[in-house]
Structure formats: C-alpha cells, structure tokens
Design a protein that fits this description.
This protein is mainly β. Helices cover 14% and strands 38% of the residues. A 5-stranded mixed beta sheet has the order 20-21-27-26-23, with no helix packed on it. Strand 16 and strand 17 form a beta hairpin. Helix 5 packs parallel to helix 6 and helix 5 packs antiparallel against helix 7. It is elongated and about 110 Å long. The N and C termini lie far apart (84 Å). The C terminus is likely disordered.
C-alpha cells in the first residue's frame, strides 16, 4: 500500500517530520491513529503507522476520519505539495479589548506609490462572511488611507468572520491576496502584545501567553494549561470568549489540544531574521540598497524558505543545529521571502531602494479648546479647559502616563480627532509605528525646575575655552531665565565682568530658544 509522505511525529521539541522507516525503528509494531502520535502534515489529522511482518512500514489515513479531503489522500503517494509564497495572509489583529467588547482590524502591506497612482480603481472593498449565520458585511476604504512606507490597519468591525474577500484594482492583486482566511469559532489565537492573529498551522511556544478567541465556554481546566477569561462578548445569540492561555510544558494532551485548533505546540518556533545588509524596516516591509540579502532561519517541523518571484539562493547550516543562513540575490525592486510548511507562516517584502533620503515627520496636530497649538516639551501649566484635541496624519497610538504607570492606550485613526483630559503629572506620547513623533509633559513641580536649573548651570560653568565680549544688552536674555534663578545670577556676573565663554554663550542662547519653542514663544 502507498505510504503517506507528509507525516510528523510529536517529539520533545514539538512536531517534526518523520519517514515510515524511521518510525518503524522506534515502534516494533503498528500504531493506531487514536494514540495521536503521528500527524498528516497536510490535513493535521492523526494517522496510522502500519508496521507488520508481511508488509513494509507505511503511514495511512484512518477510515474513521471526519475530514476525508486530504490532498495526499486524493492524489496518492507521489503528490508533491508545495506551499506557494504568494498565498500569504494579510495580517489581522484584535484591539480595544474590554470585559465585554473587542474590535478587529486588517493590515494592508504598502504598495509602491507608482502602483497606487497607476491604479484606476482607488478603493478597497472588504466583504466579510460571519462564522455563525454566514451573512455578509461590507467595508469600503479609499487609497487615501494607505501609508506608502509601511502597513495600514483598517477596521473590519467587531464581529469575527470566517473569511474576508478583497476587491480592488487588478494592479494590487499581485500584492494583496483576493481572500484572507478569518477566524474559527472553535478557537483562534492572537499574540497579546501586538494583537496579531496567528494563521492556521502557526507555531505555539511553551511558556508564552496567547489570546484564545472562541465561542466555547471552558469550564473544566486542562492540565498544564493556564487559562483566564478576560472578555465575554454577546453577538446576537452567540457568546464570544477571550481567554489568556499559556502552555507550561510539552505534553501529548496540550499538543493535541492546540492541534485541534490547527496550531502546533513547539519549543522551536519558526523565525526569520535579516542579518545583512543595513536596512530600514517597518512591519512586513524591509528596505535595503544591496544586491543580495542574508537572512537567518530557525524552525522545525519541515518548515521551508521560498522566494517570489523564484530565485536561486545558497544556504549555510549553522553550528549546533541553530538554524540556517540564506544568501538571497535581490535583482528585482521588490522580492517576497516567505517561510512555511503547507501554508505561509511568516513573510517579508524586501524592497531595493536608496536609503539616503530625508524622511519627513508625520503631521501631528495638538491643540487646546481655544484651537491654540500646543507644542512638545515640558509645560508648567495646563491647556485651556484642561483638555487637548489630537489629530494625526496616519494611524497610530496615544499613550498617557503618570510617573512610571501607563494610564491609557488609545488607538489613533488617521484624520480622526480625539479629545483627552489632562492634568499635572501626565506625560502624553504619540507613536507612529515604533517612532515617538510627539511627547509633552505637564508639571507644576518646583523641584523639576530646580533640577533643570542646576543641570544648565553645571554645563555653563564647565566651559573654559575661548571667551567673547558680552554686552549689557545681552542682559535681556535674563528675562527668559526667571525659572532658573541660579543660572540668571551667573549670567549677571558674566555681564559685570564683560566676558563669557564662547561655548557657554552658544549653549545659553540655544537653551533659551529651545525654552521659547517649548513654551510657545509667549505664555507657554
């Protein structure tokens, strides 16, 4: 009988590929599918190891399988399944989680400005099919929402859907997939830090916490699986639960629990990391200016690296089984590098372009209730109405801190204004990607002013180089040093002497100009 050729076995590190011959050396007889020791790599179902005296060792599917649509079962032993790197998922993520609510977003990897400009249909239509009653929900966005230098997350509502169809201009079909696999009501996993959805067949690491989104209500505990319910949301007649879960060790029970959700428990998760050349990276997009790339790949369970368009690359195996380094030529402007087994698990677009360019900061508008601009820096008074109105050019994140505590995290939508209350002791940070593009702090503490005064005076008195004349007219500078009395007194002594260190004079003028900038030039 023809043997299945895409089979994995559960080991101490997770699911790893194995042949029937190797399996027969470990087991001196047949192994039932009910023992869940061997798994078909293509359909994720347990398989039989037939190992008798009158037949060669081989794997085969069980007659009692619920799903008999496995590709190798249909096409036979010589079916050569190869995942296609262009069949990748657009990233999905879960955000705004509370005890009774959450929302979902889909990320669109950037296309070049030329492609966006040449597109005739400048709209993105996302058609979602709900997992419960199979109704369709439609979302429509214009290209104006897209960030050409990174990834843009668009809202796809608060109802988990089984799949999402994407309709847009044909020029974007080679960059974005036509269909994105959605969520499974039995259970879908998310990374709690980024909120990103883990696609089917993804690796789950030991001792790492995940969000589990499911319609199931887990009443009984599972051994060595930490589980805590953080959200219950009712949608029509269905209750969706979000659990925080952590697998504490590798075991058959936990491996099969995650396998039932179409995930693989492992100690060595699939990873791809660029190591050369110098690059500029945003999520899913890496910009470089060289003829080839070097990337480090780590993983088990038969994961492979592929490129699209296909290109020839060389590989070097690292010592002590610590992964593989690939040397990949990049002759085209944009190259896709993907890692997967039967499906794409991780991918990056590598774009070749000059890195010697001046990047403009994203536009951030922060005003008070009188529409007066509120600049960055340290402020010793609160804005009008103790309120700030904030609007950003791109999607981002607002962090509100007080001391070492994070009070609030507020997602920012492009061009949408929000209003937040402020008080003394607060620090406001606006993030675009991983960059902080705006930061301001409100304080009424005299101690902070005293510290700033001491620091400035220490820097000024440390200069002993070339001296320049200082006129009494420069005494006008002292007007702007009311909050730094020690520095103000030192400046008056320099005026009386008629000389000042040239470097100290430059620092003094620079500090005063900076102070004027942070305080708005007048009152602030």
């Amino acid at each position: 009988m023809a043997s299945l050729t895409h089979v994995c076995m559960l080991t101490k590190n997770g699911w790893e590929n194995i042949t029937a011959e190797k399996a027969s050396e470990k087991f001196h007889g047949s192994v039932s599918a009910r023992r869940h020791i061997f798994m078909c790599d293509l359909c994720g179902q347990p398989v039989i190891l037939a190992n008798g005296k009158k037949q060669k060792p081989h794997f085969r599917h069980s007659r009692g399988e619920s799903d008999k649509n496995c590709s190798e079962r249909k096409h036979g032993q010589y079916y050569n399944y190869e995942y296609q790197p262009q069949d990748y998922q657009l990233p999905l993520r879960i955000v705004n989680i509370t005890k009774e609510d959450f929302s979902l977003q889909m990320g669109f990897v950037s296309a070049t400005e030329q492609v966006l400009d040449e597109a005739k249909n400048k709209k993105i239509i996302i058609t979602a099919t709900t997992t419960t009653n199979q109704t369709e929900i439609e979302y429509c966005y214009s290209f104006e929402r897209l960030n050409p230098d990174g990834i843009t997350y668009l809202n796809i509502g608060d109802v988990p859907c089984s799949d999402y169809k994407i309709t847009t201009d044909e020029k974007l079909q080679s960059i974005w997939p036509k269909k994105v696999q959605g969520f499974n009501s039995a259970g879908s996993l998310f990374d709690p830090k980024s909120g990103k959805f883990l696609p089917k067949d993804a690796d789950v690491s030991i001792n790492k916490t995940y969000y589990l989104l499911t319609t199931k209500n887990f009443i009984q505990t599972i051994k060595n699986l930490k589980m805590k319910c953080v959200c219950i949301k009712k949608i029509n007649l269905t209750s969706w639960h979000i659990y925080e879960i952590t697998a504490e060790e590798m075991s058959d029970t936990l491996a099969n629990f995650f396998l039932s959700l179409n995930y693989r428990l492992t100690k060595i998760p699939v990873r791809i990391q660029p190591v050369w050349p110098i690059y500029k990276q945003t999520p899913y997009l890496l910009q470089h200016n060289r003829e080839y790339l070097a990337v480090h790949f780590l993983g088990c369970g038969g994961a492979k690296l592929k490129t699209y368009p296909p290109t020839y690359f060389t590989m070097h195996t690292c010592a002590q089984n610590t992964g593989i380094v690939y040397r990949i030529p990049c002759k085209l402007r944009q190259q896709l590098i993907a890692v997967g087994r039967t499906r794409v698990l991780k991918y990056m677009f590598f774009e070749k372009k000059s890195l010697l360019q001046q990047m403009e900061d994203p536009t951030v508008k922060v005003v008070d209730r009188k529409s007066e601009l509120w600049r960055q820096g340290l402020h010793y008074e609160l804005p009008a109405g103790n309120t700030l109105r904030i609007q950003t050019e791109y999607d981002g994140l607002l962090k509100v801190k007080k001391g070492n505590s994070l009070l609030n995290r507020i997602p920012l939508e492009a061009e949408k204004e929000i209003e937040i209350p402020v008080q003394f002791g607060m620090k406001i940070c606006i993030l675009q990607g991983k960059d902080c593009v705006y930061e301001t702090t409100f304080t009424n503490s005299q101690k902070n002013q005293d510290i700033a005064d001491d620091v400035l005076l220490r820097k000024l008195t440390a200069y002993h180089g070339k001296k320049v004349r200082i006129e009494h007219l420069d005494g006008a500078l002292a007007v702007y040093l009311n909050e730094c009395p020690k520095t103000k007194l030192w400046l008056r002594k320099q005026i009386e002497q008629g000389w000042i260190s040239e470097d100290a004079y430059r620092l003094l003028k620079s500090s005063i100009l900076q102070k004027l900038y942070h305080h708005g030039g007048e009152k602030r």
